[in-house]
Amino acid sequence: MCPLHEARYYTVGSNQVVTCNLCPNLCKIRKGDKGRCNVRLNRDGKLYATNYGLVSSVTHDPIEKKPLYHFLPGTCTYSIGTIGCNLFCLFCQNWHISRADPDNYHYGLKELSPTEAAQDAKYSGCSSVAYTYNEPFIWYEWVLDTTKEVRKNGQKNVLVTNGYIEEEPLRELLPVIDAANVDLKGDQQFYKELCKVAHQEAVLQTCKIMYEQKVHLEITTLLIPTKNDSEKQLLEIINFILDELGPEVPLHFSRYFPNYKLNLPPTPVETLFKARSLALEAGLKYVYLGNIFGDAGSETHCKKCGALLIRRQGYSTRIVGLTKDMRCKKCNTFADIVY
User: Fold this and answer.
1) In which domain, by residue range, is 121 found?
2) How many CA atoms lie within 13 A of 323 on its CB side?
3) Are 238 and 282 contacting, i.e. CB atoms less than 8 angstroms apart?
């Protein structure tokens, strides 16, 4: 196992109790204990990241799998993950790594330094590196170090994140981040009931700061029957994007299937189509559907004339109606795509 790496963003109080200031959980951690994320340890009044340099998963993915539909379409991204998370979602699909403990993880963890990870990514042939699978903010120190090395090699950095982070560490990281997909799960009650955290507003703040800092941003919402799929709840998300980010920010509605501790029936497909129609009617320009059979809701059309710009079949992507500078061939409107 890698040696313990001192964490950033913590303060020390009486009796060597530390407060972790990385995310809004603001865990107060006694000596010898870990935070709620399972990976930040108080040892003798110092906070350590016990997962620094420990990789649970590494592979090549289509960038569309993140999902990012408007960032380097048709390219691959070098995807890396570790263990741990600062949310506690009852429906988590990666619970075996998000709820894992470095001391008791039975599937094996590979040691990888930031320099080694950047070199592997460089020779992968991918255009970008994605910090994904579990929550990358819980890997903060390693991600910060690695993104800097990746940038030196001319590749892009991508976060696939729940967005649950304090403002100061977020602002330190964003200068080396090129794109992000933020999982905006639902309203305040949804986060309290199903994610077991209290500050949904922190996720909204993350989205706004990313947008202000010119990070390419896309939003994903997993629709769970009776939990976040009412018209009122959907409009709260849609109007937040319209009012605080912009109508060109892509929104992905994804279909829920039973997982981990939540056993509700799968989301009816018609619910996703209704949500997409609601978002488009409200004024969002790009609304996509995920986790459904077939390709409906996956194509990109011109926001002005409606011409087909990108055809997607699963994760296979074909650019059909775009010029080299990402404009519609039919009407010359910019397609809001980074390429």
Assistant:
1) 54-294
2) 10
3) yes
| Residue bearing tokens 């990402």 | 326
Question: Comparing C-alpha atoms, which of 37, 20, 13, 22 is closest to residue 168?
Answer: 22
E strand or H helix that includes residue 252: strand 251-255
Predicted confidence band of residue 2 (pLDDT cuts 50, 70, 90): low
Gap between the Cα atoms of 169 and 135, Å rounded: 15
Minimum mean pLDDT range among 94-103, 187-196, 330-339 = 94-103
Structural domain total, the chain: 3
Examine the domain organization and report whether 39 and 81 are in the same domain: no
Q: Are 100 and 19 members of one domain?
A: no
d(C-alpha 48, C-alpha 6), whole Å: 4
Same domain, 284 and 305: no
- Token pair of 29 as six digits: 């951690």
- Strand pairing category for 46-49 and 179-183: unpaired
Looking at residue 4, what is its pLDDT? 86
- CA 335, chain centre distance (Å): 23
In contact, 47 and 18? CB cutoff 8 Å: yes
Residue 180 tokens, joined: 């992000």
Residue 286 to residue 49: CA distance in whole angstroms:
38
Beta bridge pairs of residue 46? 43
Tokens representing 123 are: 């020779």
